[in-house]
Amino acid sequence: MRRLPRGSWWALVSVLLTAAMNVGCQGESYRSGVFDPPRQAPDFELEGSHGAPIALSNYRGKVVALAFGFSHCPRICPVTLSRLAEVDKSLGGLAKDLQVVFVTVDPERDTPGRLREFLGFFDADFRGATGESSKLDALQHAYGVVANRVLSEDKKLKYEVHHSTSIYLIDKQGVLRLLVPFGEPAEDIAHDVKRLLDT
Amino acid sequence: MKLGIPRIRWWILALVSSGILCAALVPLQVESRDVLFEIPAGTWAKRRAGVDAEILPSEIRLVLGLSDILVLKNLDEVPQIFGPTLIMPGQSFRLPFNVASEYQFECTAHASGQMKVIVAEGPTTPWSRLRFRAQHFATRVVSL
Predict the structure, then answer these.
(1) Are B91 and A37 inside 8 Å of each other by CB?
(2) B90: nearest CA in chain A?
(3) Looking at the partner chain, which of B79, B94, B99 has a beta carbon nearest the beta carbon of A36?
(4) What are A90-118's pLDDT values in tens digits?
(5) b/e per residue, A42-73, with b = 16+ CB within 10 A?
(6) What's the complex ipTM?
């Protein structure tokens, strides 16, 4: 019987090891809500918080974490944005491939300047989007976001907006892949962002 | 012969005890943790025609580690809001839960527009595993 050359054995072992590692990876699933089949994320063009207009399609090649909220939000939005800042930090060198976009549900108070200042408390690279109510309403509808204005108990605020609290994760091709419910740990969000960056 | 009966009793006792011990100590395993709910075709049309079409329970109970992945499939002709997100016709949404709690969601598949998901802790202690298996066994016996 002909013997295989020594190099062939190493090649065979490395192929088997790679196959075994891939099998392990296939079993690992996303920790957020998964859409199947995924659909193209509805695009938008709005006023950006940093001077230039902002469009979702500007961020092809990056994973986008899209959140809806408002800068006067007393409870939910600060938690969501702090968590996303935590995710950004934990990604280290990969953070440049994640873009956080925060779309306002309160265009009356959230001017581009106000959004820039508010988002700056969490991360200078976060981007905000605002614009005409009709455009924002259409966008909320396209994502299934619910936002209702209610009177605030805090007289200074006058009103609050009760709104959807989830984060949408959009992949590098602009496909809406995952939905992160409010309160998910930063570690789990970072795990899913890394997986999206690998695809 | 008189000596044989107590020995059998001991054997039975040992068998039952080891069964109980196994039921308490062996971790529970399930084939799938998915809990599937489908929004059937025609739900929106029925509701539009004023027909009461309550197709999903208003309260869904899940158990961590056993049945903690909610799968919603929209077989209707129009998008449905859950979560709050939009599930397109023919699309499904798979949402795993990691924390035991009560979750209130908006859901257009419900006449009330609301859906509650209650996620309970899974049986992780020997006593809770034993109780869970006993309840499961009793349910199966009753259903026979």
Answers:
(1) yes
(2) A37
(3) B94
(4) 999 999 999 999 999 999 999 999 999 99
(5) bebebbbbeeeebebebbeebbbbbbbbbbbb
(6) 0.75
